[in-house]
Structure formats: structure tokens, C-alpha cells
UniProtKB/TrEMBL annotation:
Pfam families: Transferase. Coiled coil: none annotated. Keywords: Acyltransferase, Transferase. This is BAHD acyltransferase. Belongs to the plant acyltransferase family. GO terms for molecular function: acyltransferase activity. Transmembrane segments: none annotated. It comes from the Eukaryota. It comes from Hibiscus syriacus.
Length: 437
């Protein structure tokens, strides 16, 4: 896509819940994990192809906008804190509303997806993801972009202070279900699970450490692991100790290995893997539990300069086992607060060390993002945006078929130049291929 892309906003509205929030629900308390989360928005963009004839596109766009606004209002009645505002450690559920933006794009969808330019994708989001408003202002913003061909891009940003990607996916899928009239597929979220699991601390004798990603400017690349290559990669990363690695373990290990190889210095590395807590704790949290309900574990790379993927898979498997057997049990006990603070302090110290290469790895797989059907079909593609002010991040998302993986990788420019030419990586992944409409 050329640089003459224009995404022109022509309408901005505040959408409020269809029914006022009851008085007994007017205040929502943030959990300890919510409070520790850095102020930023979680971004997702859902891309849909258009089918209308040229003469009908304007009318179709207006009809879609009307339906989406009406159903968004109904959805906010269920997800009522999202229409409020953060005040200190609370959300004032005042029904002030969410921003809903409508925009026209001066091209067809094909121009954006053949192939996608990660840095341009931010144009389709309603706000900068690094905005501090995530901690003080609007919690949820939506931008619906309409292309000349009738295609759409629905950009959604939700404050990380109240949600994780799992929560965002549940919200969008519920909104989509209500839009298409499938109320049985719409969920009733369960708020308060995070504060029940990890109650807020009123009197803290020390400052809450913020959980942050690596600072510094990075460049992003998208790598697609086709579903046909996943079984081969899993077989290549299998060993006697981990005979059946998961696809996330196999892809993460390969990316980590290639990132280590691209590093100019032979320093040891540490990988932080983010984990969804909902099914890890005992008893498990409800499936529709809303909030920032994730934690993480760290694993070290081997000391040898030649790092095999099988070894890294084994370390990832040992890491999640140790996390589940020890760390999670501490979260369920009386030492939960000190356990969280010590882990955050340790990770913060590791990320600031000059003699260690520190990587952050996130998996957004199996979260159902491709189920968001508003009534005109499931998305052709679901994406994030490129070029955040951070580096050394690996983000894995499902492919459209649910079996492949799309990996977004952020490294500094010099290391990315080596990483994206790694022959072992390219044996399994394509670099930013076009998205087929």
C-alpha cells in the first residue's frame, strides 16, 4: 500500500449502555493485578470482505453502522464497567459511554492486505495503544473503517487496566453475536473474579511495581506458520522428554532460538512467557471471568552457544509445570501478594540487566478471535498493529484455520535483519505473506 492512504473520520459518537447500571454496581474495584498493569490499550483489528454491489455499498455501510451501534449499546449493559471511567483504584461505572468512530478509507481492502504493512495498521485503530488514557480516561474505543469495496476493518482498543486479550475476545464475540441476532451465543461476563481471587490491598508499605515490556524502539515483522508446516515443526522439536510439544511450544522455541542467533553478543537470555490464569488456579475461575487474569513464568536459555529447539521446548515445558505446581499454589494461599511482588521485582531486575537478553512471549491462540461474525461472515483476518515502542517481543495468534500460527516479532533493526533471513526459520514460516480475501 502506498503512503497516500487516507482514513477519514466522518462521525464520532459516545455509545452508552442500553440500560442504566444499577446503583449497587456503580463502583467496581480494581484487583491487585489490574493495578500493576501498565497503562496501555489492547488492540485488535477485525478485517471483513465486502459483497455489496457498487450502488448498494453506501446503504449497506449505513445499515451496518446502525446495527453495530445498537448492539454495542446492548452489549455494554452486560459489560457495564467498560462504559465507566477509572478513578484511582476504582472504576466509576457512570455509563459515560465508549467512543464509537466511523471512517472511510480511500482504497479497497485488497490494497491493505496484499501484503499488510504493519506500521499502517495503526490507522485503523481508534487510539494509540500506548496512551495514558488507558488509566484515566475512556476504557473502550471502537473504530469502524469502511473501504471502497464494501469491506470493513473494525478496530477495538480496551484498557489493559481492566482486561486481558481473553476478555477482549469475549467482549467482541458477544457484541458480534448480538449484532447478528444470536443471543444464545452472547455471554454474560462475570466481574469481580479478579478481586475475589486477588483482593485489592488497601495499605501497601511499598510501591506497586508496574509490569512493563522492554523499552526501546523495535521493528516488527509478521511470520506465518502454515498449518501444513506445524506438524513437521512439532516433530523436529520433539524429544524423549517432550515427545509431543504443543504448536505454541514448538513455534516459541524456534523463534527464541533464531532471536538468540541474531543477537550480536553471546550473552545468556531469559524468556518471560505470559500465562492465562483462569484454568490454572484451583478451583478454576469461570470461563467468562473478566479482568486482567494473567501471570507469567521465566526460563533461561542454555549456557552453550549452540541452542537446540528441543532443549528450549523442554525448558518451556518445565517452566509451565513449575508455574502450575508452585507459583499458582502460592497465589491461592496467604502469601499471594508477596509472591506477586517478588516475581514482578525479579522480572524488572532481569529486564534491566545489560548482560542478559530479555524476551517477552505472549500466546493469543485458542481465544476464538476468528468467531467474531457480526452477520456478514467471520473475519478474513485478525491482526494487531506493528511498531510499538518496545522490542524483544514475540506475539503468537491463531491463523484463520485455527491450526496455523501468525507470529508478530519485535526486535531492534539490526537483529531483525539477521532474524528474518534465518534459514531454519524460513523452512517453516513465510515472511509477511499476503492475506487472501
Amino acid at each position: 500500500m502506498t503512503t497516500d492512504l487516507k482514513v477519514e473520520t466522518f462521525r464520532t459518537e459516545s455509545i452508552k449502555p442500553s440500560s442504566p447500571t444499577p446503583l449497587n454496581l456503580k463502583t467496581f474495584e480494581l484487583s491487585l493485578l489490574d493495578r500493576m498493569t501498565p497503562p496501555m490499550y489492547i488492540p485488535l483489528i477485525f478485517w471483513y470482505t465486502g459483497n455489496a454491489a457498487a450502488d448498494d455499498r453506501f446503504l449497506e455501510a449505513e445499515e451496518r453502522f446502525h446495527r453495530m451501534k445498537k448492539s454495542l449499546s446492548e452489549t455494554l449493559t452486560r459489560f457495564y464497567p467498560f462504559a465507566g471511567r477509572i478513578s484511582d483504584c476504582l472504576i466509576d461505572c457512570n455509563d459515560e459511554g465508549v467512543d464509537y468512530i466511523e471512517a472511510r478509507v480511500n482504497c479497497v481492502l485488497h490494497d491493505i492486505l496484499k501484503p499488510p504493512n504493519g506500521e499502517l495498521l495503526a490507522e485503523f485503530l481508534p487510539i494509540q495503544t500506548e496512551s495514558n488514557e488507558a488509566a484515566t480516561g475512556r476504557l473502550l474505543l471502537v473504530k469502524v473503517n469502511f473501504f471502497e469495496c464494501g469491506g470493513m476493518a473494525v478496530g477495538v482498543c480496551l484498557s489493559h487496566k481492566i482486561a486481558d486479550l481473553y476478555t477482549l475476545s469475549k467482549f467482541v464475540n458477544t457484541w458480534a453475536a448480538i449484532t447478528r441476532g444470536s443471543n444464545e451465543a452472547a455471554v454474560f461476563p462475570e466481574f469481580g473474579c479478579a478481586t475475589s481471587f486477588l483482593p485489592p490491598q488497601k495499605d501497601l508499605s511499598f510501591t506497586i511495581p508496574a509490569m512493563e515490556f522492554n523499552p526501546g524502539k523495535g521493528v516488527s515483522r509478521r511470520f506465518v506458520f502454515d498449518s501444513s508446516k506445524i506438524p513437521i515443526l512439532k516433530a523436529c522439536t520433539a524429544s524423549t522428554t517432550v515427545p509431543q510439544p504443543t504448536r505454541v511450544e514448538a513455534v516459541t522455541a524456534l523463534i527464541w532460538k533464531c532471536a538468540i542467533a541474531a543477537s550480536p553478543s553471546p550473552s545468556p537470555s531469559v524468556l518471560r512467557q505470559v500465562v492465562n490464569l483462569r484454568k490454572r488456579v484451583n478451583p478454576p475461575l469461570p470461563e467468562n471471568a473478566v479482568g486482567y487474569l494473567v501471570s507469567y513464568f521465566t526460563v533461561n536459555s542454555p549456557e552453550s552457544t549452540e541452542t537446540e529447539s528441543q532443549v528450549l521446548v523442554k525448558r518451556l515445558r518445565d517452566g509451565i509445570r513449575e508455574f502450575s505446581e508452585n507459583y499458582v499454589k502460592k497465589l491461592e494461599g496467604s502469601d499471594a501478594v508477596s509472591t506477586i511482588f517478588e516475581a514482578a521485582k525479579e522480572v524488572g531486575n532481569l529486564s534491566r540487566r545489560d548482560d542478559i537478553k530479555f524476551y517477552n512471549s505472549l500466546s493469543w491462540c485458542r481465544f476464538g478471535v476468528y468467531e467474531a461474525d457480526f452477520g456478514w461472515g467471520k473475519p478474513t483476518w485478525v491482526s494487531v498493529k506493528g511498531a510499538p515502542d518496545a522490542s524483544n517481543i514475540f506475539l503468537l495468534m491463531d491463523g484463520r484455520d485455527g491450526e496455523g500460527i501468525e507470529a508478530w516479532v519485535w526486535l531492534n533493526e539490526a537483529e531483525m535483519g539477521l532474524f528474518e533471513r534465518n534459514h531454519e526459520l524460513l523452512a517453516f514460516a513465510s515472511v509477511n505473506p499476503s492475506v487472501h480475501c
